[in-house]
Amino acid sequence: MEQRSSETRWKTELAHAIRDTHALLTRLGVDPCEAWDSSHFPCLVPESYLRRMTPGDPQDPLLLQVLPTKQEDTPNPDFHIDPVGDEAARLTSGVLQKYAGRALLITTGACAVHCRYCFRQHYPYSDDLHGIEYWQPALTAISQDPSLSEVILSGGDPLVLNDRKLGQLIEHLAAIPHLKRLRIHTRLPIVLPSRITDELIHLLKQSRLQPVMVVHANHAQEIQYDCADALQKIVQSGIPTLNQAVLLRGINDNVDALTELCECCVNLGVLPYYLHQLDRVQGAAHFEVDPEYGIKLIEELRQRLPGYAVPQFVQEIPGERSKTPLPHVNSLQVGSARL
Predict the structure, then answer these.
(1) Taking the domain 81-334, which CATH number applies?
(2) What angle do CA 317, 320, 323 make, to 5 degrees?
(3) Domain limits of the chain?
(4) In terms of CB atoms within 10 Å, which of 132, 192, 201, 257 comes out highest?
(5) How far apart, in Å, do the first and last CA atoms of the chain sit?
(6) For residue range 291-323, what is the model confidence (pLDDT) as tens digits?
(7) Could you give the percent of the chain with pLDDT greater than 90?
């Protein structure tokens, strides 16, 4: 009964998430006259995330991450629907492999929030059907490649799956002898913290696969209240927990914001992992920061923080065999949007 009630809670919260831009702005006391709704990528904001926004502030760093704007319709020839080469990396339905030793499994197309800079907002999720019977080709491909030691669950967001489906998937993966680690890339501990239940932690810990949780917070304001509690629950369970952020114009593109973000993570036992240069996805050009400025921000972070608290500043370049540290990236490859 308790397990059912905890799962019902996060599902109910997700079902009641805000899906209308006008309603979002009205709830925050921000003038909704310029409200705009995207037809291809609609507004989606859970109540917990909304409660961490500052009422009356149209420049709130959390609001700006999820608020659809007309800037998304401004065409830019340097921004694309597949900015990181997912299509070229597809091994079979639902499986991407870009780097040696690990493969990424698209578990679902659903998320608990629609971040406006999402690099997979145009991904053809309908091509990858989900559920154990539909995942079978992916599981077969993974089982036939003994070079793989790690599977990354991604999406969408894998924690949108309920415990039963997630447990089935983990059980099938654990039956593949050469797999050793299970990495979960998720934003739910940040935007829908009620998803982090005792039952979920038990599900991850009982597998023979070593779980690793990679969460996604871009601003310290996200990491408070129930979000901080959820992150502590994961960390205190013994699951290694990392944070990856994206450098975003007007949200975290200053050393004070990044310092506070990194310190909030470390104070909860979450290791700052990556700071990503924005993936050049169609509709997100207004978020881009000059990569040279990002390099300077990292240099300033090193002067303020211990080394373990400074994330690696990276760019994902299609066709490369690893994430590329930006100081070594040719500026013509990265592109530039001067501040």
Answers:
(1) 3.20.20.70
(2) 65
(3) 81-334
(4) 192
(5) 54
(6) 999 999 999 999 999 999 999 999 999 999 899
(7) 87
